[in-house]
UniProtKB/TrEMBL annotation, chain A:
Keywords assigned by UniProt, alphabetized: ATP-binding, Cell membrane, Membrane, Nucleotide-binding, Transport
Subcellular location: Cell membrane
Domain ABC transporter: start-end pairs: 2-240
Taxonomic superkingdom: Bacteria
Entry membrane topology: Peripheral membrane protein
SUPFAM superfamilies: P-loop containing nucleoside triphosphate hydrolases
GO cellular component: plasma membrane
Protein name: Amino acid ABC transporter ATP-binding protein
Entry's Gene Ontology molecular function annotations: ABC-type amino acid transporter activity; ATP binding; ATP hydrolysis activity
PROSITE patterns: ABC_TRANSPORTER_1, ABC_TRANSPORTER_2
Automatic annotation (TrEMBL), chain B:
Protein name: Amino acid ABC transporter permease
GO molecular-function term, one example from the UniProt record: L-cystine transmembrane transporter activity
Residues covered by the ABC transmembrane type-1 domain: 32-220
One cellular component term from this protein's GO annotations in UniProt: ATP-binding cassette (ABC) transporter complex
Main location: membrane
Secretion signal span: none
Subcellular location: Cell membrane
InterPro entries: AA_ABC_transptr_permease_3TM, ArtM/GltK/GlnP/TcyL/YhdX-like, MetI-like, MetI-like_sf
Coiled coil: none
Similarity annotation: Belongs to the binding-protein-dependent transport system permease family.
Organism: Paenisporosarcina quisquiliarum
Keywords: Amino-acid transport, Cell membrane, Membrane, Transmembrane, Transmembrane helix, Transport
Membrane topology designation: Multi-pass membrane protein
Length: 244, 233
């Protein structure tokens, strides 16, 4: 489903991604962990071209983006459609209600009729447990509810891959569970997911594989059991020890 | 006694009331036919110009930035009255004759465009980067993002400063009297020239400006309230 080859990203003099190679199969849930500054969020953002990689290539589904050439806008658009992102700070549109937030992509970008988009958006909001909050503005919702709207908004785009960028880091502890539960349900449905998170419990319970990144490189990739009980690399051990 | 100079002579009082009353109609006519349309048309054209200028300023295309900077600098750096004189008398003297009213509209629109562009630029920049990212993520183009996500939010932020601009504009239109637009203040001057009650007429016209601006402030309050519905307080 996803194939990343020799991906580099440079911000000025700072090399954030130093050659990432990664294959992810359809339906897999991959959790990316690592210290801050390890490049995990940048990697995720590259998958949606919110950052333009300096070189390398990414294939998602049947779309390939080769960043050693300059990309025409048209192919960026097509490539972007393959994935949808859930942001750390939700980034909901504050001037739109929950259902308007979810409908926006289908109506404006996919040119779906309003009635159709509304029906779909309603189903998605019911699915994330917000069937009674359709007409609420984001500021009237709790952080956990806002993030679930964010997940519904991403799902409405019908992406091949769902990207989660630390989706629970901005939440009060008691609200983390409801968001993780929705993500768990999605994983159960067989959606391909790439999740950057610090929630090791979630990684352990839901991930098919865990990737540990440090200093712009993938240090280790393994099943969660192996990663958490028997990490191979010294750097991984250090990081996991720090968390305990 | 000093006080005596303030004592009210009934006959004089009657004359004042008479003049105040009879001048009210031509003054209001000047307001309705010239002052208000001039303000409104200039503000709308000026706003359109301001949005374009603001977008040019924040664009990554250097020449756009230069043009916008030059325009804002030239307008803000020169007196409004001088600009009006250039448009009307100056251009007129070299054969480019513009009627008073359109000349005033051009002058005021250019002025609003320059000042309001800075307001709008600041408002656009005040919208968090995450809003642009979310819009790009769902597949919106630059213009869709502006129209659907950024400008609606920027509008809310700009209502108070833009109301300032509009209220200033309403009062600045009195300068159009000097390029022969028979707006409210020019009417007052004309009437005062016939009866020499200068203080009375200029005070009267001041009060009318004040009342107009008072109502504009009320409208500002309502607009702010309307746009606040999606923000927590």
């Amino acid at each position: 489903m996803i194939s990343i080859n020799g991906l580099h990203k440079q911000f000025g003099d700072l090399e954030v991604l130093k050659g990432i190679d990664l294959q992810i199969n359809k339906g897999e849930v991959i959790v990316v962990i690592g210290p801050s500054g390890s490049g995990k969020t940048t990697l995720l953002r590259c998958l949606n071209i919110l950052e333009v990689p300096t070189s390398g290539s990414i294939t998602i589904d049947d779309q390939t983006a080769d960043f050693s050439k300059s990309l025409p806008k048209r192919s960026i658009d097509l490539f972007r459609k393959k994935s949808a992102m859930v942001f750390q700070h939700y980034n909901l549109f504050p001037h739109m209600t929950a259902i308007q937030n979810v409908m926006e992509g289908p109506v404006i970008v996919k040119k779906l009729s309003k009635a159709e988009a509304r029906k779909k958006a309603e189903q998605l909001l019911i699915k994330v447990g917000l069937g009674d909050k359709l007409d609420f503005y984001p500021h009237q919702l709790s952080g956990g509810q806002q993030q679930r709207v964010g997940i519904a908004r991403a799902l409405a785009l019908e992406p091949k891959v769902m990207l989660f960028d630390e989706p629970t880091s901005a939440l009060d502890p008691e609200l983390v569970g409801e968001v993780l539960q929705v993500m768990k349900d999605l994983a159960g449905e067989g959606i391909t997911m790439v999740v950057v998170t610090h929630e090791m419990r979630f990684a352990n319970d839901v991930a098919d594989e865990v990737i540990f990144m440090d200093q712009g490189k993938i240090i280790e990739r393994s099943k969660p059991v192996d990663m958490f009980t028997n990490p191979k690399e010294e750097r991984t051990k250090q990081f996991l020890n720090l968390l305990q | 006694m000093f006080w005596n100079s303030f004592s009210v002579d009934p006959e004089k009082m009657e004359r004042y009331l008479d003049i105040a009353q009879s001048s009210l109609q031509p003054l209001l006519e000047g307001a309705v036919v010239y002052t208000l349309p001039l303000s409104l048309i200039s503000f709308i054209l000026g706003l359109a110009l301001a949005v374009l200028t603001a977008l040019a300023r924040i664009s990554t295309v250097k020449p756009f930035q230069w043009i916008a900077r030059f325009y804002v600098s030239a307008i803000r750096g020169t007196p409004l009255l001088v600009q009006l004189f250039i448009l009307f008398y100056g251009l007129g003297s070299v054969g480019i004759v513009i009627d008073p009213f359109p000349a005033a509209v051009i002058g005021f629109s250019l002025n609003v465009g320059a000042y309001a562009s800075e307001v709008i630029r600041a408002a656009i920049l005040s919208i968090p980067k995450g809003q642009w990212e979310a819009a790009h993520m769902i597949g919106m183009s630059y213009s869709q993002t502006l129209k659907r996500v950024i400008l609606p939010q920027a509008t809310r932020v700009s209502i108070p400063p833009l109301s300032n601009t509009f209220i200033s504009l309403v009062k600045d239109t009195s300068l159009a009297s000097l390029i022969l637009v028979t707006e409210m203040f020019r009417r007052a001057q004309e009437i005062a020239a016939t009866n020499y009650e200068v203080l009375l007429l200029y005070t009267e016209v001041a009060i009318i400006y004040w009342i107009i601006c008072f109502f504009l402030s009320l409208i500002q309050g309502r607009l702010e309230h309307r746009f606040d519905r999606y923000v927590s307080r």
